[in-house]
Design brief:
Length: 210
């Protein structure tokens, strides 16, 4: 029995039905985990990846469909999101860590998504200001909550009206607790956002830009 009360057998059956992954995604997660490059927020689980893919699939096909991802997390999130996007949509991945960037770039190349992905090695605080205003339909943020708080204004600037913000790991236990609380309070007080938090997957903040 899992901690959330779901029988392990049922969980595995549900994973096979709704969160099955291709080998390239499984391998990407294994490499990132083994390299310990995603210490702030580990790569998405199969269920969380399926949710990211579902959210990406809800983006309007006649509107902003490009995605920006802050924190590469081994390329796992991007690998889940890309199949749900139109063929002319792109994912821009911003990663400050050299090893994490290389792992994500390799995974996305192996997955055959090289032409749809732009992987940028650099500090998100320096890269985000160079991205176009109101261009992206979805932004996925996975990294230290203190850094996320400082990036929020720029993240909202690049999101198109009605765009979706996803922040992973906002309820993780440990040294980031105080910063997580400040980030959540900041989002809750921001009149530009309509937000909620899911307790699953170490806390998943979902918000839309009004």
């Amino acid at each position: 029995m899992d901690t959330d009360g779901t029988d392990d057998t049922i969980r595995e059956e549900l994973r096979g039905l709704f969160a099955a992954e291709e080998r390239v995604v499984v391998d990407a997660r294994a490499r990132a985990t083994a390299a310990a490059v995603a210490t702030a927020v580990p790569p998405a689980s199969p269920e969380e990846g399926a949710l990211l893919r579902w959210l990406a699939g809800r983006l309007p096909r006649d509107g902003a469909c490009d995605v920006v991802e802050i924190g590469a997390s081994g390329g796992v999130g991007a690998l889940h999101v890309l199949p749900a996007l139109p063929s002319d949509a792109t994912v821009t991945v911003i990663e400050p860590d050299t090893q994490a960037h290389a792992l994500a770039a390799e995974a996305l190349e192996v997955g055959g998504h090289g032409e749809q992905v732009r992987t940028i090695l650099g500090d998100p605080a320096e890269v985000l200001p160079r991205l176009a205003d109101a261009h992206y339909g979805m932004c996925v943020v996975q990294g230290p909550p203190a850094r996320t708080a400082t990036l929020l204004d720029d993240v909202l600037r690049v999101l198109a009206p009605g765009g979706l913000l996803v922040v992973r790991g906002v309820l993780r236990r440990g040294e980031h607790g105080a910063a997580q609380a400040r980030l959540l309070a900041q989002v809750a007080d921001d009149a530009r956002l309509d937000a909620t938090v899911l307790h699953e997957h170490d806390g998943l903040l979902l918000a839309t830009l009004r």
